[in-house]
Design brief:
six-stranded mixed beta sheet; 23% strand; disordered N terminus; seven-stranded mixed beta sheet; single chain; globular; alpha+beta
Length: 513
């Protein structure tokens, strides 16, 4: 039975080995030319979170690559790293050290020259206890760092680290002189194409063109305004009225009404890193039994979630990986599909007929609420007493971080698109050392370590297979649909690109009349 893909028509992407990011095919239609300046208005549902800039956090997508730069960026077609602040690199034969050559023509917005010391500082900053990041495990695996000269840095690891270039893609190089002010949201000093002129917490940011950007002739835009509108309908209205030219992550059903409008394009990121899942607190009976968790996986109608909630954007899946991941297995991705009879037999085997289960979700996210309602319906059909538990965002995420959600919980995760070790070593739903499900397994930790320290090749392929089999069996996280972040744009916006972590790249963006 094939993996079900959604049918919503979205903009086609053009990805080539000549660029590290994807460009919308609509840009090739010849309506205008760059260089006209103008200000791009972006609308998003949540404010930026400066204290999370060294982690991947959705509200920061519009800022990280516009105000800062990363060391490398993956090519979307080859998935090979391409130069950014690093111009080249040499990995040791045993994969335990890498020497990076850095650009010598880059300055921070303050005027200070970028150097190897800034790379070392940023990695050390990621290790700090007061800094959140899904990549701490990588930063801590780097045992020594040496600036060989101002524009060369060598990193040593005690063992091979398979997701080192994931770190280089996600980590903005920060200014050591103002980093604590960045965490507090007081100063935003980067090397990127735009400077932060004003930040109003809760309302958004005003960005101005960096006239000293290291890419000659870029950016084309004079500035960027990032505005916060908490409701998806308000975001859509801002687009339709012309107040905004780009909306980040409109609610999927709100994109449907724009589908046939020639003035807009709905772009589903090819990174496919928005995976909706049902998690289980395994310390809450009967969720402590794998067969009961498997029963839940068999009970849920993934096709209905994909079509009715996510507007067909994505594909149903029992595994967390997007098609770009080396761990992706098309056959195993559809292991679970709705089968109420199988679900009932497994519930009976677990001795849990008629059991009560809570389904927690963030009440501020309509998409998650709609998924939770479908899960409730399906579990009731399987004979369980399923009760919805809506929680305010702060309460939900507090309980999620502390492993305190009492039963099942609906949420969305990323990190399934590149090296799989990033998911199982860093993403909180799956982190083998500590996760939201309180799932504690020596076997799982050993599998995660094996994924992390095995270079590409047949041994890595075998590790992927072993991990997939384990996740499908244990089901402490039950993936439902691997979807995508979306960029809904006015067709006046050209040249929009993004990296494999969905950070907007506006170097080549411009507006037409």
């Amino acid at each position: 039975m094939p993996v079900r893909r959604g049918a919503l028509a979205v903009a086609v992407l053009t990805c080539t080995a000549l660029t590290s990011s994807c460009r919308l095919a609509v840009d090739e239609e010849g309506a205008g030319s760059p260089g006209g300046g103008g200000v791009l208005n972006i609308v998003q549902s949540a404010d930026v979170a400066p204290n999370t800039f060294l982690s991947q956090n959705n509200p920061n997508f519009a800022v990280i690559r516009t105000v800062f730069n990363t060391l490398t960026e993956y090519d979307h077609t080859t998935l090979k790293p391409k130069p950014q602040l690093a111009t080249g690199w040499k990995m040791s034969a045993d994969h335990t050290s890498v020497t990076l050559r850095l650009r010598d023509d880059v300055t921070f917005h303050s005027g200070r020259a970028f150097s190897a010391d800034d790379v070392i500082f940023t990695i050390k900053a990621m290790r700090r206890d007061d800094v959140t990041s899904q990549f701490k495990h990588v930063a801590k695996a780097i045992t020594t760092m040496k600036a060989d000269d101002d524009h060369t840095v060598t990193l040593h690891m005690a063992k091979p680290v398979s997701n080192l270039f994931n770190l280089f893609e996600v980590m903005p190089i920060v200014d050591k002189a103002t980093f604590d002010d960045l965490l507090a949201g007081k100063k935003f000093i980067g090397t990127g194409p735009f400077k932060v002129a004003k930040y109003t917490p809760g309302a958004g940011l005003e960005l101005k063109k960096n006239d000293h950007y290291w890419k000659s002739g870029r950016p084309y835009l004079d500035g960027v305004n990032i505005n916060v509108q908490s409701q998806s309908q308000s975001m859509k209205s801002s687009l339709r009225s012309g107040q905004s030219q780009l909306a980040l992550d409109l609610a999927p059903l709100d994109t449907v009404s724009l589908k046939g409008d020639p003035n807009f394009k709905v772009v589903a990121s090819d990174a496919a890193d928005a995976a909706y899942y049902i998690g289980s607190n395994v310390t809450t009976p009967p969720l402590d039994k794998p067969e009961f968790r498997q029963a839940i996986a068999w009970a849920i109608d993934r096709d209905r979630i994909l079509e009715q909630v996510l507007a067909g954007i994505g594909q149903t899946s029992s595994l967390p990986w997007s098609p770009s991941s080396p761990a992706f297995d098309r056959r195993k991705a559809h292991t679970y599909h709705r089968d109420i009879d199988k679900a009932g037999k497994l519930i009976a085997r677990a001795g849990a007929k008629g059991a009560s289960v809570n389904i927690a979700f963030n009440s501020g996210l309509p998409t998650n609420q709609s998924i939770a309602e479908i899960v409730q319906f399906d579990l009731r059909k399987a004979g369980l007493k399923a009760k919805l538990m809506p929680l305010q965002a702060a309460d939900f995420f507090g309980k999620l971080a502390g492993g305190g959600l009492p039963g099942l919980f609906v949420n969305v995760h990323g990190f399934g698109q590149l090296n799989p070790s990033t998911l199982v070593k860093g993403a909180f739903p799956f982190n083998a050392d500590k996760n939201a499900s309180n799932f504690d397994s020596d076997e799982y930790r050993a599998l995660a370590e094996r994924l992390w320290t095995t270079p590409p090749g047949p041994k890595a392929d075998a590790a992927h297979t072993a991990m997939n089999d384990f996740l499908l069996d244990q089901q402490f996280v039950g993936d439902l649909v691997v979807s995508s972040h979306t960029f809904t744009i006015s067709t006046k916006l050209k040249g929009l690109t993004y990296n494999m972590y969905d950070y907007l790249d506006l170097d080549d963006a411009y507006l037409t009349k």
